[in-house]
Structure formats: structure tokens, C-alpha cells
Amino acid sequence: xxxxxxxxxxxxxxxxxxxxxxxxxxxxxxxxxxxxxxxxxxxxxxxxxxxxxxxxxxxxxxxxxxxxxxxxxxxxxxxxxxxxxxxxxxxxxxxxxxxxxxxxxxxxxxxxxxxxxxxxxxxxxxxxxxxxxxxxxxxxxxxxxxxxxxxxxxxxxxxxxxxxxxxxxxxxxxxxxxxxxxxxxxxxxxxxxxxxxxxxxxxxxxxxxxxxxxxxxxxxxxxxxxxxxxxxxxxxxxxxxxxxxxxxxx
Length: 250
Ligand code: APR
Prior knowledge:
Blueprint: H1 8-16, E1 19-24, H2 27-30, H3 43-46, H4 49-52, H5 55-60, H6 62-77, H7 83-90, E2 97-102, H8 108-112, E3 117-119, E4 122-129, E5 155-159, H9 168-180, E6 183-187, H10 198-205, E7 209-214, E8 226-229, H11 232-246
């Protein structure tokens, strides 16, 4: 049993909610063994995003960028959804309108069983040609170096790099879900990268009840209605256990 205390106000808000959004970042995958970007062991403390996660870096040195993404793919393939991902997926058994809006590219929410997922920053399992935009989602062949499309264009990972636009449909649907949400969970994100982080303020302005789940204070801690400081893999299962006490499977 968890030792997390939930206020009556929080429980009531949760149980009376119809539309729930989980806005997630790298922190929810930390307990699956996937490193986060910022904070004490963050990726960006050791590596430079401008050398790895932007289009010019890819054109300058596609081999190096692919080496980095293949390294991350290996870590992701060896990881599995943790209790936090699974708890979010379980919410769909008790609420009929649950949306996951994730900044993560690791596919773990889908592997955990969540159904409605918007991926703001792409998905490491997908790749496309920079010239003709043909998608290549099967295993790529690196024996001849960086894989090329039939048209001769370089194939890149389908992830959003710094300075690039987010997929318009994913962002639009995420904005709509944030506006409509009764309760908006902000889980495992430093909330410093825009436009994704702007969704927290969109939900706030729309009157959603904001719940933060993080191991430490963030940029949005001052505007949320309640913060649970703890690991997502512990806090989220404790919350769904509370829901189970009061709600039946739908
Ligand atoms: N449980 C909950 N929160 C955690 C945990 C955990 N077990 N471990 C770490 N955190 C929190 C950290 O305190 C931090 O606030 O997760 C957050 C991770 O923040 P970032 O590393 O900045 O990741 P994120 O917010 O997802 O970054 C946004 O930046 O580099 C780009 O495209 C990349 O999608 C990424 C975007």
C-alpha cells in the first residue's frame, strides 16, 4: 500500500472528472531506464542538442546523429513500460475519456496499452526520407552507412528536432484535449520546451484542475492546483488505487 495521503478535494476532483489528460515528459520513462534530458543525470549535461537533435547537425554528420539515435533505440528496445505508464493505461478502465499527450518518442505509453496518444515530438520507431517523405518503419539497413531512400534522399528518424515544427495534427488535437480537460496531469516534465509546455497554461486558462507529478519542483509548480513530489511509478499507481476504491470498471 502507498503512504501517499490524498486530500478529499483531490479525490472529489478526480472522481467527478470526465475528461482526463496526462501530459508526460521524459521523467515518466526514467524508471524504465531511459535517461532524461535535464536535471542531474540529464542527456544534455553531457551531449549538445545542437550537435545531435537538429536538422543541420544531421546534414553535417548524418552518421553521428544516426549513431546516437540507434544507441537510444537500443536502450528503448531493452526497456519496458513501468508502473507509471501502466497506471495511466489503467485509467481507461475507469474513465471513458482519457488522453495521453506525450513529449516522449519511446512508444512506452502505447506498449503500456494506452489507446488515445498524441506524440508531440515524434516516435523513434518511425523514419522518413528527407527528400520525398516516404516512411520507412521497418528495421533500417546500416551496412552501407546511413540508409537512403529509393529516391536517393537520406532517411532520418521521425522525431522533432530543435527548431522544427511539431506535427500540426498532434499539436492541434492536444490543444483541443487540454482545453476540454477537467483534470490535467503534468507528469515527469521540466515544462521548459515550447510549444509543448504551453499546453499546461492552455489547460490552466480553460479551468482544468492541474495536478503535477514530479520528483522536484518545476517551472509550473507555482501554477498547478496540487503537486505530488515523488516518482511517477509510485504516485500514479497510488492514485489509480484510490480510484478503484470508489469507481467500478466502466
Ligand atoms: N518521476 C517523475 N518525474 C521524474 C522522474 C520520475 N521517476 N525522474 C525525473 N523526473 C522529472 C525531472 O525532475 C524533470 O522535471 O522529469 C523531468 C524531465 O525533464 P526533461 O529531462 O527536461 O524532459 P522533458 O521535460 O520531457 O523535455 C522536453 O526536451 O530535449 C527535449 O525533445 C526533448 O521531449 C524532450 C523535451
